[in-house]
Amino acid sequence: MSPLEIARLALRNLARNRRRTALSLAVVAAGTAALVVTAGFVRFSFDGLRAAMIHGGLGHLEIADAAAAAARGAALDRPASPALADWREVRRALEALPHVTAVGANLHLMGLAQSADGRSVSFVGVGAEPDRERRMGFEVRLREGSDLPAAAPAPGADAALLARGLAESLGVRAGEVVTLVATTPEGTLNALDVTVAGVVTTGVAELDTRFLKLPLASAQRLAQTDSVSNLLVGLDDTRATGAALAAARAALAGRAAPLAVTPWSERAPFYGQVRDLYLGIFVFLGTIVVVLVVLAASNTLVMSIMERVREIGTLRAIGTGRGQIAALLVAEAAWLGALGALAGAALGLGAVLGLNAAGLRMPPPPGAVDPIDLRLALVPEAFAGGALLMILVLVLAALLPAARAARLAIVDALGHV
Amino acid sequence: MTPALARLLAASDPFAAAPAELRLELSFVGANGAEVPLEIWRRGDDLALVRFLAERDLGKYVVRRGKEAWLLAPGAKNPVRMSPALAPAGGAALDELLSLRLARDYRAVSAEESRGVVTFELEALAPGVEPPRVRWAVDRARGLPLRAEFRTAEDKPRRLVEFKSWQDERKRVPAEIVAKDLLRTGSALTVRIRALFDLQDASAREALPPPPAPAAAAPAPGTVPSPGAKDQRPP
Amino acid sequence: MSGAVREAPVFRVEGLTRSYRVGDADVRALAGVDLEIGSGELVVVAGPSGSGKSTLLHLLGALDAPDAGRVFVEGRDLATLGERQRTLLRRRRLGFVFQAFHLVPVLDALENVEYPLVIDGVPRAERRARAAAALDSVGLGERMSHRPDRLSGGERQRVAIARALVHRPRAVLADEPTGNLDSGNALRVFELLAALGREHGATVVVSTHDPELVARAPRVVTLRDGRVARDERRPEAVS
């Protein structure tokens, strides 16, 4: 009996008890759809988190003085000292590399912001280049006022974007002036008046209470330095990060003061943790789905075999081999898996498209500020993997009952009522 | 405590012989190793003006009146009130040293001698005197202080000042001190004193360089919170 | 071995004994049966119910194994055959007809008849033609695409006969093939079996307790209490 004939006969047998087959198919389909939708959600979360991190200020690569980077450690919120003096040359070299959209210089600051009425709040600030950050796809989430101008401000025309918590603590709005006090690299203090251009959110509640951003020129004026803390490299494709990392390291090798080139993923240990967490949840859910499907499927498989003991006896009597019987029963299960997975994939596709079309919003994740538009991803691997998993699971569930059916004593089976 | 030790303590007070009105030329060695030249104008313990002399610091001043201090910077229209947290460790240490009157404000709780060094445990006589406690180490043979550990009222070490060298041992004017902040990062700041001028001494006044040209962004009259600060300017 | 000189009988059994355990009691279905059935013979195994007819057919058809004694099919001792060889023996050399027809409900008449050829790997076109011819020969050429549930009892058994003969077996074992049929259909089925067996040169062994069929058999083996009570040859009684 050729596999094709076994498959045909198996398909016929599924039509025997349509209600039960439909029920099994529904279980498998629901399981597959659950996997597909969950995978879509997990991918959506990963992608969203990654994009938020890269475009929220991490960039794809960071270039910093190796010694300063080592001193700073993995902490992101501790400012790096302005240790890059020849950053313009470094930038020129980096901006010539493929995939690089722009290289933005950052100067990190810490200090005290004071409002005209004397309120003072400590801040962490970053001096940045708005024109380059725009080219790198960095997001500025304005809540009020306007973004920083692209051109470096003249002395006396300094402006800043204040995170909303900081603006609130200072009691200032766009257009008002705050005085920033910061320590220079020499250890003395300096102060600078900046006009609040706009109020922004970083997307992270904790950071919103103390973050501010100002043009690099203003930050350098305040810190009395020409150096910068680091350079951030933006790429046109996140998948090119590895290649760009190697290219940047090669381009910067051999400098007297070695530079550390760090990919975004290493600067965001949080991303790895969240990824692991989500994958864990996904595996856990997948296990539950598999267990449910196995339970439901093996039950119906056993029932359908029990009903056919006499027929199996007949088939054995007229010369059907044990292997052929087992193959037939396993093929029935495989059909159930395949058809159910197909239906489930369609169901999952519909669910993903439907949920996306419904325009649902997710509440802000822990520590974040804004709700997120739910945009489930269509993950081809999940469709293929889910279908294969279902077929595999059904086949495995069928193996034992099929083997038992194949080993029935023929005479007993024929006499079975 | 023996009278000899009491005399030793009283005589080890740095700047004790400093005039009421004075000008100090000094520099900090900055966190990045760069020298930060500045001068301090001072009248009594209550009024002080710090003028930063480096080109990059042009137009920057710190004014102190009593316990309050303001930063004047060319980039900021108004003086910025400086909380103690903002005060740079070196300047505060120096200010504290200049204001310190061991014989007047403190009593010795104990004194121990070891290898020619006498260590006094001092306690402020009145509340509000800063610092409330001092551990004061003096070289007995030379009568000069070696180390001062400023402590909080709870007797926690706050700042360590080491006297590295002396410019005028008789008047106890140090040439180099190292101040270490013990509460925060523990970073050390070196202060080098080049000269001390008595502003009431005409001869000293004649030795002065021409008065600094006020920078464009120097504080406008009226915005300076302490009118006394202006009086500190040389005539 | 001696096949060239004298063909071995299709079935030969020696001292065949088989017991079943029913509840607490051992029921002896066969208690020492010796029998030989030659090529092309039509044999009716008769006897009251419980006399061991079905058991004998099961043992002849390699569906079951005896407690004692031996079964030779075409000279081969079944005890020496493995599971796979017994399966192949049933598939290629034997045909089965059961009392309850035992057609596959999801297959139509043609497909049911085709099935033995399917499991033996006969190419599709050939097996379709052979199955159709077999159905024709049992008079069901018009009902090929009917599923068993749309056929009468007699028609179903004729499909079963076609299925038992389509692969041109050496012998057909029919266990009470008429037990579920009325007398008219029973006779027709029996005669069909006899005629087709003759046509194919196949040995046909039919178990029955229907006296009408017994009367038409050229050889009747009567079982009683698990033994051969009588083995009667009546060459004149050809149905």
Verbal overview:
The complex is a heterotrimer of chains A (417), B (235) and C (239). Chain A is an alpha+beta fold. Chain A has 15 helices and 12 strands. Chain A has a 6-stranded mixed β-barrel. In chain A, a hairpin with a 4-residue loop joins strand 2 and strand 3. With 235 residues, chain B is mainly beta. Chain B is 14% helix and 43% strand. Chain C has 239 residues and is an alpha/beta fold. In chain C, helix 4 crosses helix 5 and helix 5 runs parallel beside helix 6. The N terminus of chain C is likely disordered. Chains in contact: A-B, A-C. Chains A and C meet through helix 1, helix 12 and helix 15 of A and helix 2, strand 6 and helix 3 of C.
Can you give me a brief rundown of this structure?
Chain A has 417 residues and is α+β, with helices and mostly antiparallel strands.
Q: Assign the structural class of chain A, choosing from mainly alpha, mainly beta, alpha/beta, alpha+beta, or little secondary structure.
A: alpha+beta
Arithmetic mean pLDDT of chain B: 79
Number of helical segments with 4 or more residues of chain A: 15
Structural class of chain B: mainly beta
Physical arrangement of strands within the biggest beta sheet of chain A:
2-3-8-5-7-6
* Count of distinct strands of chain B: 13
Strand content of chain A: 15-25%
The figure for the number of domains of chain B is: 1
Specify the biggest β-sheet of chain A: 6 strands, mixed, barrel
Percent helix of chain B: 10-25%
User: Runs of chain A with pLDDT <50, length 5+?
Assistant: 74-78
The radius of gyration over CA of chain B amounts to: 18 Å
Q: State the order of secondary-structure elements of chain A, H for helix, E for strand.
A: HHEHHEEHEEHEEHEHEHEHHHHEEHH
Outline type of chain A: elongated
